Amino acid sequence: VESMLEANKKILAEVEADKNFDADLYFRLGQCFFEMQRFYEALAALNEVYEKYPDYANRELALYCMILSDQNLQREGRAYMLCDKYLKDYPEGQFATQVSDLLGILA
User: Fold this and answer.
1) Mean pLDDT of residues grouped by 10 in the chain (107 residues)?
2) In which region does residue 82 sit, left (phi positive, over 0), alpha (psi from -120 to 50) or beta (all else)?
3) What is this structure's pTM?
4) CB under 8 Å to 72, separation ≥6 — which residues?
5) What does the buried/exposed string (b/e) look like for 59-90 if buried means 16 or more CB atoms within 10 Å of the residue's CB?
6) Contact 67/80 with Cβ under 8 angstroms?
7) CB 63 within 8 A of CB 102
8) What is the DSSP string of 47-83?
């Protein structure tokens, strides 16, 4: 029992030391929902990543997937707003060309 307790404490310390643990979980959950075309749920999970973890490595991708989710839900106004936010936050971003094109379509 003592060895199991020590092993659990070690695992807990590793989880607590990983500052991106929660962000990774929300991001993966958002990706899964997106792939299953459950866009409302994807938006909820990805928004959590975008709003609460400003230094997260996949934050840009989370925002891009939020744009696509809103577009798929035919929420053009919200997609437009997120496109604008993306281009302000990531003017040279990985998806800047696609977002710029989508912004023009939504205008």
Assistant:
1) 77 67 93 97 96 93 97 95 96 95 89
2) alpha
3) 0.82
4) 37, 39
5) bbbbbbbbbbbbbeeebeebbbebbeebbeeb
6) no
7) no
8) HHHHHH-TT-TTHHHHHHHHHHHHHHTT-HHHHHHHH
